[in-house]
């Protein structure tokens, strides 16, 4: 079982969550945590491919709630709050953060999506 973090610090202005373990310390942006949420909405119910969550560059964390002695629940300003971030989840996300972020950026590009909120294509009216 993964050890609990020594400390968790939320930097409200920068919207970074710092998770400090005995061996490692990780900093996660709100956007990263939102797009890699451990919820079924993002990860699916059967372990299939991750859903691409676009438009979250400006997402903010509005609440952190401890869940037992093994996780926290994060509420985001877009209403998402269904993922439980276990200590193991933080360890896994932290260890793979650079690769996961690049994979996310690549998927956005492949699917013609954007990190920017409300960036749906604009259509010109042809007269």
TrEMBL record:
Sequence ranges assigned to domain Gamma-butyrobetaine hydroxylase-like N-terminal in this UniProt record: 8-90
Record field: transmembrane: none
Signal peptide: none
Keyword Iron: yes
Molecular functions per Gene Ontology: metal ion binding
Keyword Metal-binding: yes
InterPro entries: GBBH-like_N (IPR010376), GBBH-like_N_sf (IPR038492)
Annotated keywords: Iron, Metal-binding
Name of protein: DUF971 domain-containing protein
Species assigned in the record: Pleionea litopenaei
């Amino acid at each position: 079982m993964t050890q609990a973090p020594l400390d968790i610090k939320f930097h409200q202005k920068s919207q970074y969550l710092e998770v400090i373990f005995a061996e490692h310390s990780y900093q996660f942006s709100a956007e990263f945590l939102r797009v890699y949420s451990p919820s079924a909405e993002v990860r699916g119910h059967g372990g299939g491919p991750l859903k691409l969550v676009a438009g979250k560059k400006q997402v903010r964390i509005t609440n952190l709630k401890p869940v037992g002695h093994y996780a926290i629940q994060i509420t985001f300003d877009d209403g998402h709050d269904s993922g439980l971030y276990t200590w193991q989840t933080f360890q896994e996300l932290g260890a793979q953060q650079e690769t996961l972020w690049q994979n996310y950026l690549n998927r956005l590009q492949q699917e013609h999506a954007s990190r920017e909120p409300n960036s749906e294509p604009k259509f010109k009216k042809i007269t």
